[in-house]
Amino acid sequence: MNGTERKNVRPGLRVRVVQKQHQRSGELTEGIVRDILTNSAVHPRGIKVRLEGGIVGRVKEILAD
Questions:
Q1: What is the CA radius of gyration of the chain?
Q2: Is residue 54 part of a domain?
Q3: Helices H / strands E in the chain, number of each
């Protein structure tokens, strides 16, 4: 699924995100979505979310349940 479309992202999903400080290196962090922070339906760099651990980042991959 595509992490740039808000309709594909929902709380409880396991995703990989890139944090702001890791955008250059592309380092991904895995976690479960707690909140969706992007209001628009589509964002070209990924929907911004807060993970259950409090980490904020943009969704790069949505993992299978």
A1: 10
A2: yes
A3: 0, 4
